[in-house]
Amino acid sequence: MKSTFVFQVLLMLLCSVSAIAQCKVLVWSDEFDQDGLLNTAKWQYQTGGGGWGNNELQYYTSARSENARVENGHLTIEARKEAFQGSQYTSARINSKFSITYGRVEMKAKLPHGRGTWAAMWMYPTGSGYGNGGWPDNGEIDIMEYVGHDSNVVHASAHSHTFNWKNNNVKTNWQKVSGLEHDFHIYALEWDSTKMDYYVDDIKYLSVTNDGSGWQGWPYNKDYHLILNLAIGGSWGGEKGVDASVFPTQYQIDYVRMYSSPGTYAPLTGPAKVFTDSVYRYEVSQNANDVYTWQVPSDAAVQGKNDSNVVFVKWGATDGKVISRVTKNCGYWSDSLSVFVYDTIQQRPFGGRAWPIPGRIEAENFDVGGKGRAYQDFSQGNAGTSTYRDGEDVDMEKCADSDSTQNVGWIADGEWLEYTVNVDSAANYNLKFRIASISVGAVLHVEMNGVDVSGSIVLPSTSGWQAWQTYKVFYKALVKGKQFMRIIVDRGGFNFNYLDVSVGTLNDLNTVALEGSVFSLRPNPTKDLVYLTLSPLRNEDAHVRVLNVLGQQVLQQHIFSSDVNVPAGIDLSVFSPGFYFVTVTQGEHVLSAKVCRD
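The structure corresponding to this sequence follows.
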C-alpha cells in the first residue's frame, strides 16, 4: 500500500514536470537564416576597447563583417589578430533588444578554439533598481563561459550582492563535454521565481535557488537581456597567455531562442502582513481554461469561490502561507506567499492611532515594537544627539527644518521604518518626501502590507544634511483600509523628516521631475499611441515598462541611447480603457507617471 502510494506520487510529479516543459511558448528567437550583417532589429552592438574591466585585449567593433556576420545559417563571431583603435585584437559583443523575466533561454553553438579565447553567453538586467544600481547588486547570469586554455569544460555562474567572485563565494559549477570546439551543443537556462537551472545539452550541472533573502541574494526577478561575446585575454581567459597562432578563431551560433513558461504569467500577489479578523485580496494572473485552487492556514478562510484567480481571505491569528495552484492543460504551476499576522501586543502605532492617509507621517514616529518588527537599524544606539524615543535603536537628531521636529539620519542600505496607516479611500496618491542629502542616487521604495507600491525612488542631492527639500513622487495607487507602510532603503545617504501623502489630480499625469530631468507623455489621455519624450537627454539607454493598476507589467520597450532624442511611441490600443503606469529607467534614474487610455 505504502509503496504503491509513493509510486503514484512520483509518477504524478514526473508527469507534471514533463507537461510543464511542454508549456513553454517561443517569444523571441533568431535563427540566423538571412546572410549578411547582424539583424539590428533584434540585436545591438556594444563597441570599444580598454579592457572591459577584465584586462581584455580586444576591441569590439560595430557592423563589421570581419567580426560578426551571418552566413550558411549561422552567426559567426570572429576574433582576429589585428591592430584596431589601439587594441591588438578585434571581435564582437552583441546585446539582444528583447528582455525576459523567467522562462527558458537556449542557444545552439560551436565554441572557439585557442589559448587566450573567452567566449560567453550571459544575461544582464535591462534596468537598475537594487543596491548600488549596477554590478553585482542587480545581478548577472552566466549561462555559458568557455576559456580556451581549459578545453572541453563549460562553466555557469550567478552573481549577486551576496554571492559574487569578488566575495569569493560565487554560485558556480563546470561540466566537461567532449567536442565543444568541433560540434554544436545546446546551452540553456530554465528560470522561474524559485530557482535557475543551467544545462549543457540535457545535462543539468548547476541549480541556483531563491533563498528568500531578498534582492541581495536573488536579484533575478526582473527583465534581463542576452549578451553574446568573444573576448581575448583578460583576467581569466588570458591567465595562461594568448596563442597568437590560432587567429582568426570563430564562435558560431546556430540559433538563439527565448521561451516563456508557466512561471512567467502566474505570480501570486497580495499583502504579506495583515490584521487578524480582516479580509485581504490575493490574485494570480487569469488565463483562459486555467483551473485555480487555493490553500490558507487552518484558522483563516477563503470567502466566496475557491476556484477563481482572485480570492478574499479572512485571517485568524496564525501566521502562514497562501498557496495558489494553477492547473493548465499541460501541467500545473504553484506559488506561495508567507503572511505575517499583526499582533497588537508586540507592534502598535506610535501614540496609539494609525496615521491617516491623506496626511503627514513624521519619520521619527514609527511604530512601537522594536528592531526587526517596527524598524531595522544596523548601528548600535543613536548616532545623533536626540533623546527623543530613548531606548529605540534608530539614529535621530533635532531637525533644522521649519517644523522643528526630529529627523531620522545616518540611514544605511537595507534599513527600514514601518508605520501603521489607515487609507481613507482607494485612489492614486502623491508622495512627498521631505529629505536632505549631500549624496546623489540614494534609493528607497515603499511597501504596503509587504507589496511594493512605488518601485525604486531615486533621491536627489539637496547640497546639505540639513538643507531640506520636498521630493515629489507622482501617482501611486493605494487601497482602502488599515495597512502597514514600510519605507525601505535600498541605498542610503539621506536624512528623512516626514512624508506627506495627498490625493493626486489629473494635472499630475503628464510630467515627472527628478534632478532636473523630466519625461512627458503626450497626448494624455489617448486612444492609441502616447509619445514619450525625455528631457534633458542622457546619453544612455532607457528601459520603458507599462504596468496596469494591479502593478502587473503589460508592455516593455527598450530605447537605445542613439534613439533617445526621438519621441518614442507606446501603443496602448490593444489594452482596455483605464489608467496605466509608465516607468522609465535610465541608469540609476527611475521616473514614473500615469497615462489614461480612453
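Helices lie at 2-22.
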